[in-house]
Amino acid sequence: MDIDDTLTREGKLMASSYTALWHLQEAGLRVIPVTGRPAGWCDLIAREWPVDGVIGENGALAFWEERRDLPLQRAILKAEYHENVVRNEHPVLERIRERALTEVKGLRIAKDQFARLFDLALDFAEEEPILPLKDALKVKKIAEEEGAMAKVSSIHINIWIGHYDKLTMAERFLTRRFGWRSGADDREVVFVGDSPNDEPMFARFPLACAVANIRRYTTLITRYPAFVASMDCGDGFAEIAQTILEKRG
Q1: Which tens digits make up the pLDDT trace of 78-102?
Q2: With contact defined as beta carbons under 8 Å apart, do 54 and 45 qualify?
Q3: Bond into 196 cis (ω within 30)
Q4: Domains in the chain, start-ordered, CATH in brackets?
């Protein structure tokens, strides 16, 4: 699942969604956030949330804990980085940053940029002033003109050098960590998201879902998920989790 506006509302992790994560993991399901949030956040999430790993910076990295069957043995944090990652001090990203901040009034660097390794996050809707979606799309176009990858989330435009995304790292992580088989096991994956940067996941997995706030992006998404919750944000995620658990018996 995505995190921002899928598990959260107005930036806060909701009790309903966090409880749902525990219920899913306690039922024996693998729980893996797939987010545009930075490496620094992913370290915390992998250590402190009820998850089996976390994919961050839109597919640049995956963190997870490995536990040993020894008395009092602490879990060890492991990490994997996509081979195409480029550190975010790249001059192309610097050029994009300067152009975007000059050409889009009110745009700013995301406050979590200090915790990022590989991408540039520009904030259009996490904090005030809230900019219209057309401004986010303008920034995305600037990034692509300069030769970078760019995705629009519900709060940021994430920009990076290198060809990878949430989907490529998710498929790799599922395969290497859990023996998932592409094609044969596609219907064993349920992804939940909320915004255009989740569209590759919606298109790939036949049981992909979204929370109700996906409807604000109907003009930007061509591959819609199979199911949309009746509620938004974390309450919608909890609704989807409850439906899964009930149908599994």
Answers
A1: 999 999 999 999 999 999 999 999 9
A2: yes
A3: no
A4: 8-84+164-248 (3.40.50.1000), 91-160 (3.90.1070)
